Amino acid sequence: MSLYPPQHHQESQFKNVIKTIETFPLAQLISVYENKPIITHLPLRYSRNEKFGMLSGHIDNNNPQLKNLKQGVTSTIVFNGPDTYISPSIYNTKQLPTWNYIKVHLEGKVNRILSNDELKMEMIELTKFLEGSDQKYILEKEDPRMEAFVNYVTGFELEITAWEGKFKLSQDKNKKDQTAAKQALTTNYTDVIPIYLDSVYTNHIKKG
Questions:
Q1: What stretches of the chain adopt beta strand conformation (E)?
Q2: CATH superfamily of 7-203
Q3: Whose CA is closest to 103, among 169, 182, 45?
Q4: Cross-referenced Pfam families, in alphabetical order (predicted)?
Q5: 14, 100, 103, 156 - which has most CB atoms within 10 Å?
């Protein structure tokens, strides 16, 4: 048995992988073109089938990664859950500093390229999913902006062929320390966002 990755950091429940995909749907689509890795960030919608499921999305026609999205071609897809630094100060036992995280790695094979009508319906379904149970906006197929939209993007469907859940959550620690690490992940991940966004909006966003 391989020593890496540690087995206690490998997620065994596919339902937790699905939960991560559906909670953090912005994916990294990774492929290689002309010996160079290409990475695109895009939301993907998960749907179930008799195997591992499907991922649907769309990509700008000017994106060079589109050349890799051909029938049967496989890409790597990464979904990022929460992560944080874990200080030894939170533990009841003596430990070293570490970083905890939740990541999902998938292999997906292009199942088909969507027609314009299928792309419109996929956009409607993606919007419905992203809006959530309290849907405040409904995308209409007859919206004239949709007709222009489908001319500069390509819709696609990926079949998930392999999956790996990397859930590093202090599983090798005792129960009290695991609980403390969970609380740190919850608190640190949410607390840092307002400070980070204030900085980004101040230093990056151009003012009119």
A1: 10-11, 26-33, 36-43, 45-47, 54-60, 74-86, 98-113, 153-168
A2: Electron Transport, Fmn-binding Protein; Chain A (2.30.110.10)
A3: 169
A4: FMN_bind_2
A5: 156
